[in-house]
Amino acid sequence: MSNTLNPTATIESSETTRSKWTSSDTTWMLSLYGTAIGAGVLFLPIKAGSGGLIPLLFVLFFSFPMAYLAHRGLCRFILAGSSNDGDITVTTEEFFGPTAGNVITFLYFLIIFPILLIYSVGLTNTTLSFMENQLHLISATAADSLALKSIVSLAIVSCLMLIINFGQEMTLKVMSYLVYPFICVLMFIAVWMSQYWSTAIFSTWSTEATVMGTLGNIWLIIPVMVFAFNHSPIISSLAVAKKKEDAGVAEQKCSRIIKYANILMVVTVMFFVVSCALALSPEQLSQAAEENLPILSYVANHFGTPFFSILAPIVAFVAMSKSFFGHYLGAKEGFDGLVTRGAKAMGKAPSVKTVNKITFVFIFITCWVIAILSPNVLDLIETLVGPIIASILFLLPMYAISRVPALAKYKGQVSNVFVTVLGLIAISAIVFSLVNMAIAG
Fold it and tell me: Could you tell me which InterPro entries the record lists for this protein (predicted)?
């Protein structure tokens, strides 16, 4: 019977056509890839390699299922909402009420804002290291001085905020163009470091301090993995777009896009991570963590090749600047909302201009102060950013699957248990880190 006389066959044929891979899908795949691959990649090799061989193997084997299944779960959650324009906040309000929507909005701010602080610290330390080791303008003692750190961090944060204030749209466009050259350079660096590969990390197989120590390293690596592969901010946009473009096959399309994007990012990132781990010993990677430097700055100082020693810090600076600009928009939007809601609760209605000024001053001062104080970046990721991302990216969709009828078809899957367990481990890393700090103190 022809499709004309068989409506079911016509529908199936139409869905098959729409489920085919398109140029739009390629664009979305690269957008997810570009969102995830940024400055976070510069801190993953330090945590993955400093713990020895077993934690590195954990990252190698679990990165893809962890990133893919979690982001697929979040996308399914958003797609289940009844509104075609509904993002994560709208969908959360629909399923759990307005209070839950407000909580998610606040948690999103808590995810994005600390990342700005991380990049403020990273950019300041990278600049000071470059001035000391490559330009030889300052001594090691000067680089650690509070006065110089205050001046350098003020200059960096001022330049970033000035660019945002007067050329935000153009800046973001330029920065988005830098994503793919950044990846090419990162792969070049990974290949270049292959000449320094050694078997030092394999010796940790027999010299791991204790089983508990190894498990502890794996425990604390999970929040860093969550941070390094996170592209949750763009998942809402993907879900909303595919609801409109590919109604009926949106879930299938989104799952495929997320899968291919994660394959691409895991292959490239893990090649870089493994190359760093083989070129440097666990002790050297631990030193990079202690110096609070992104991996490229440490590598530039360690190998000392003239061309590379200049290239690596510049790449690190561009990567963190790009990520700073991208996250500023989210942090600004979130803080604007908090200020507006707080003012309304007090019976006031501030103008948009006033709210923008308050947000600008708050972010400027906070980033500057934190850059001066220079808290350890990996500690911030382990105890704050990674766990909060996990609460939304891993646990919210899994909770919704168990409670929301529209998601009931996803119940009973083994992947749900996997995502839930890793999400709980990532959040519990806060407790583990705080206990470790208390013991050390």
Answer: Amino_acid_transport_2 (IPR018227)
